[in-house]
Design brief:
The chain is 30% helix and 20% strand. By secondary structure, it is α+β, with helices and mostly antiparallel strands. The radius of gyration is 16 Å and the shape is globular.
Length: 150
């Protein structure tokens, strides 16, 4: 099995359609924060990165129309991979969407077994499913078939 960077990986309570259907999930935001915090060796909050700190420091220079969205990304809504997990932090970005109460997983490389197991662990912690393209449920057997490293 292969999960590529072009596929949409998410953590949600139930499968969903990618387009044409508005779905709101029920992932608990505080439980998601707790998971990231309990894995601080593997994740870093975007606002704790050099880029996030620079943006916050220069928030007065952000146009008013964009300020709310920028501040949203700097409020424990986006976690990047730590150097312990990935060579480049943006190779794995995990975001919480307040509007649909779902976790999106952005991959810059194909998913490997280690990262897949971590995302599946997150899904279980949140009493949710790991999904590809909104409908394909990923389980341990599928994760075990992923390559060790990509």
């Amino acid at each position: 099995m292969k999960i590529t960077r072009n596929e949409i990986v998410a953590v949600a309570k139930k499968p969903y359609k990618l387009v044409g259907e508005e779905t709101v999930d029920d992932i608990d935001y505080q439980s998601w924060i707790d998971f990231i915090e309990s894995h601080k060796n593997l994740f870093v909050w975007y606002e704790e990165t050099t880029e996030g700190k620079d943006i916050l420091y220069n928030i007065d220079k952000v146009p008013e129309w964009a300020k709310e969205r920028v501040l949203y990304t700097l409020s424990k809504k986006r976690a990047l991979a730590s150097e312990e997990l990935m060579k480049t932090p943006t190779d794995l970005v995990i975001s919480y969407s307040e509007s649909d109460k779902r976790i999106s997983v952005s991959l810059e490389k194909n998913l490997n077994k280690k990262t897949g197991k971590l995302i599946l662990e997150m899904a279980k912690h949140l009493d949710a499913l790991m999904l590809v393209d909104g409908k394909k449920i990923i389980d341990e057997k599928m994760i075990d078939s992923l390559p060790q490293l990509v």
